[in-house]
Amino acid sequence: MSYLVLARKFRPQTFDQVVGQKPIVKTLQNSLKRDRVAHALLFSGVRGVGKTTLARIMAKALNCKQGPTPTPCDTCQSCREISAGSALDLLEIDGASNRGIQEVRELKDKLKFMPTSSRYKIVIIDEVHMLTNEAFNALLKTLEEPPAHVYFMFATTELHKIPVTILSRCQRFELQRVSSADLSNHFSAVAKSEGIDLEPAALSLIVREAEGSVRDGLSLLDQVLSYGESPISDQDVVEVLGLVKRDVIIAITKALLAGDRPTAIEMLSEAFDFGMDIKRFVTDLLECFRSLLLIKIGGCEHLLNVSETETALFKTLAGEYSAESIHAKLNQLMQTADDIRYSLQPRLTLETAFISIIASGDVVAVDTLLAKLDSALQTLPAGQLDQAQPIEPETAPEPGKSKPEPAGEPKKNRLVETVMGPQPPLPGEPPNIDDQPAMTDAKTPPAAPSHQPAFRLEPATPPAEQAEEPELESEKTKRDVRKDWPEFISFLKKEKGWMAQCLQQTSLVKEVDRDLILEFDDPNDCFMLRKKENRRTLTEFVLDFFQKELSVRIISPDNANGNASENSNTPQKRRQQLAHHQVVRMTEEIFNGKVGDIRISESNK
């Protein structure tokens, strides 16, 4: 007899042998115990998690000589025939090769007859999502009301491809990926039964490569057992599966965190010389950074898929860096993984990504920076912070102009003067009289600083005129609504383009007492401005620009209460309203176009 691979040799034959899936196993056993088995069962999940296995065990439980029972004996004729695949009353169909309507018709004809030797006739369709829509439709009636001696069991890896009409007629069981702990225990037991010792590091690699699939893990274990001698080391697994050595992955991780460019590039070159798959290499590197981040977060060690030795190593490494730094570099690596998929030079892309990751440096949390700032402020001499003058709120300057400085007062940084002391004037800047030391003798003025210019700046205007300058400046800041309205529209375009577009449709703008009156000929031009929040925003812009407290009033023909003329809904009126609509106006301005023709459908006339 030919060699039987481990995936077939150790396929579970009873519910107790199923790896993982405890909730589903318990549900199936209780349904058998209480005689509540649905006539159609659907098992879904990723590859190798036990979908077809559970279907076959259910077939055994239903047709067992002692059944229906939650614990099939696995020794009676029916159980042995199902295990050997020779049961006449078990129809196991491959949905990928029997996917047409003709195959479904033949299946329905077979189901009319009673089982030959078993209690029930059971149909198992693997990869049922491969059936055509016509085949699914032909199966609907039989699936909804099958004969009393028929049970359907479906298995699929792509649940979303199955029609809803089929899903509603089945009892669904969604199988999860098998946990790392269950896989590790199962693979260790299989290796012992085969007389092979597995080192913990080698077992951890196989479990990680299995990705939650029992069949994939057993296939990898079968390949490793054929290669190495007992005990199997992690080096044997790396060589057989074509993986990059874990030492290289961890060394590159350390180099990226420590900012060691030569080591990172050299280790990457060594990995390339080994002939590794670059996508798989990036995946392993991402897994390392994920492990570091989970350890740094704390309380997530159970989510790691690494050995105890690597866990201890990652804990030591994670303690040297902040969670923000690890997270930032992990994000850059994830972006690199996407770039490699479409790159013509994947190696160059990865090398430049390494340089960028190292150049990004360590990331410091904002809380840490604020704590350092607080500690630095506490070290200042007592009383200096109390002497700091509060910074007065500044009014918004006019568009395109800087805020005028008060006459005779140079620019200062009060906080700098408080902490560092009075600062000397810049070259070419007249000295501040308040900062000069008091004269001890009226005839002997203090010596000028070495950086002060030799000439003296005279005021351009007499002192009397200088005293009136602030009042003149305040007069300049006031604007007239009638004269400066176009400039206000230009200012508003930079802040709220759509609002400026609406205001361009005004027929009259005037200021009466404390009111800014805006008149519109068409109410459609101002319906957005009538909203409370938009009027508040417009009032704020008016205050900032005109430096006046004006209340905005909008006046337009009112047709909301049914007072419009009889011709308000005529096609001509509708065309006019649409032509002057603010969205149409804005579209014309953006695309520099013009409305050519407006057509109104019969339903809108």
State the end-to-end CA separation. Answer: 85 Å
Mean pLDDT: 79
**Roughly how much helix do the residues carry, as a percent range?**
40-55%
Assembly category: single chain
Strand order, largest beta sheet: 2-3-4-1-5
Radius of gyration: 41 Å
Q: Characterize the largest beta sheet: strand count, sense, and whether it forms a barrel.
A: 5 strands, parallel
Total beta strand runs:
8
**Shape descriptor:** flat
Write a structural description.
By secondary structure, the protein is of the alpha/beta class. The chain has helices spanning 6-9, 22-33, 51-63, 77-84, 101-111, 133-144, 164-167, 180-193, 200-210, 214-227, 234-241, 246-258, 261-273, 278-297, 308-318, 323-341, 346-359, 366-378, 414-420, 463-477, 481-495, 497-503, 532-546, 571-579, 582-591; strands at residues 40-44, 90-94, 121-126, 150-156, 171-174, 508-512, 515-519, 551-555. The chain has a five-stranded parallel sheet, with helices on one face. Strands 6-7-8 form a three-stranded mixed sheet, covered by helices on one side. Residues 399-403, 405-421, 431-476 and 559-568 have low confidence and may be disordered.
Label this structure with key terms.
605 residues; alpha/beta; Rossmann fold; Helicase, Ruva Protein, domain 3; Zinc Finger, Delta Prime, domain 3; 4 domains; five-stranded parallel β-sheet; three-stranded mixed β-sheet; 25 helices; 8 strands
